[in-house]
Design brief:
Elements (H helix, E strand, L loop, with lengths): L1 H20 L3 H23 L2 H32 L5 H8 L5 E8 L5 E7 L2 E7 L2 H18 L5 E6 L11 H7 L6 H11 L29
Parallel strand pairs: 3-4
Antiparallel strand pairs: 1-2, 2-3
Helix pairs in contact: 1-3, 2-3
Amino acid sequence: MGKIKSSLAAIGQNWSMTQKVYKFLWAEVLGIVLATIIVIAVPVSIFINWLTAVLIALPMGLLAGTFWFSRRAMRAAYSRIEGQPGAAAAVIESLRGKWAVTPAVAVNRNQDMVSRVIGKPGVILVSEGAPTRVGHMLTSERKKTARWVPDIPIYEIQIGDEEGQITLRQIQKTLGKLPKNLRGSEVTEVRRRLEAIGNAQQSMPIPKGPMPTSPRQVRRQRR
């Protein structure tokens, strides 16, 4: 019973957050549910019977409505944190998959930053800020990282709205396209070795609040 209440509370929180961005969310979801039910129920009832049509169309309608809501919730979550320092690190930490994220391994006075992500592709340096400002930060962090793990692939991803950058919504797809160069044990070893690198500056906080796949409180201190 406790788990059910917790799940319902989480759904309610996500719904409230999403509706602040999409005012007519209830109409959208209801429309998707009804449209799906009609599209499926009518032909099934004609060729079989109404009872079968209801048994098939109703759960399919609810599934379609849930899918639409989840997509809206994801977009709303992105819009709430977009532009905040550390947003990219927060998104990556919420993604499915084994990604070890160290937020803000490099930060400048403009709050541009570089976060370090370790996974099966290798080391991914993720920057947030204008390309003209984060370019040298990425270069410096790449050199520093390469000294500790010279044989490990290092990738760079810039988050932003300018040419050559990707948006928060594209992070998961971009990471998923990277080749799987390391085994699980190798990922652990790379992470252990890079933990020895200390930050010259204290890590910046990353945004709090519900994330698309795993709502949680994000740590303020780097791992």
